[in-house]
Write a structure and sequence with these properties.
261 residues, 6-stranded antiparallel sheet, alpha+beta, Chorismate lyase
């Protein structure tokens, strides 16, 4: 790492912002790779010729941007790459990860026909107890567990789905190719949560770690519900985007809510 930083004392840009920008540039250039530990506040302050409080502001600014992670009592580390989910695009995890150039893997925890619980039945417009295919899977990108997903689909619309190899094949691709069901819309609600013991074990994170939880319903071209799901993302390895720039008349559904902490 560079032994010093060149800050412009005459610039209207605050010194903490100048320092954070230079550190961010070192990270983008690979000088500071993912997982690298940053110097202590005192050392950063000395290298930049600023106060320790200003150095602390720079680190906090980088942490808010998700560039670094602060582990109290241990140090500050360069954050690993994040998987990005576009909440306005009806893509499955496999398709979205493939577009980002990532390697996808799946670990299936449950795949069976069960009676629909109340919430899933309501979302799928079925009677409680109607047969549905339940899928519980841990999805990984680049070898890192990112998503714990539970899905319910009407068994009558996709007979045999409980026997499909969904560790290798995309669910949405199977729905379209085998059953003629194409997902064209998703209504979803996103909120922040913390990991309980079971979720922490599945995602290989500490209990109490931050999560993004998305509850949603995927629909076909006729607007019929096809999948009711709960997607639990690691907060340190995933981010949610809402981008309507590709469509002049795109509309954000009022059922999509994003909570940022």
């Amino acid at each position: 790492m560079s032994g010093g930083y060149q800050l412009d004392r005459e610039s209207p840009v605050p010194r903490y912002a100048q320092l954070s920008a230079q550190i961010a540039e070192q990270i983008r250039a690979g000088v500071l790779p993912a997982g690298a530990k940053l110097p202590a506040e005192r050392d950063l302050a000395e290298a930049a010729g600023i106060s320790r409080m200003t150095a602390r502001q720079a680190i906090a600014h980088l942490a808010r941007q998700g560039v670094v992670e602060i582990h109290h009592g241990v140090g500050t580390f360069v954050a690993g790459p994040k998987w990005t989910y576009d909440a306005l695009q009806p893509l499955g995890f496999s398709e979205a990860t493939f577009r980002q150039g990532g390697a996808v893997s799946t670990r299936t925890l449950e795949q069976a026909v069960v009676g629909a619980p109340q919430l899933a039945a309501d979302a799928l417009q079925l009677p409680v107890g109607a047969p549905v295919v339940k899928l519980v899977r841990v999805r990984s990108a680049g070898g890192v567990s990112v998503l714990l997903q539970t899905s319910y689909l009407p068994a009558a619309r996709c007979p045999g789905l409980a026997s499909e190899d969904l560790q290798r094949d995309s669910l949405y691709a199977v729905l379209e190719e085998r059953y003629g069901i194409r997902i064209t819309g998703i209504s979803q609600i996103i909120e922040a949560a913390t990991a309980n013991a079971w979720r922490a074990a599945q995602l290989d994170i500490p209990r109490g770690a931050p999560l993004l939880v998305m509850d949603g319903v995927a629909t076909d071209a006729e607007g019929c519900p096809v999948e009711a799901f709960r997607a639990v993302y690691r907060g340190d390895r995933a981010r949610i985007t809402l981008d309507t720039s590709d469509a002049a008349d795109a509309m954000i559904s009022p059922q999509v809510a994003v909570l940022v902490t």
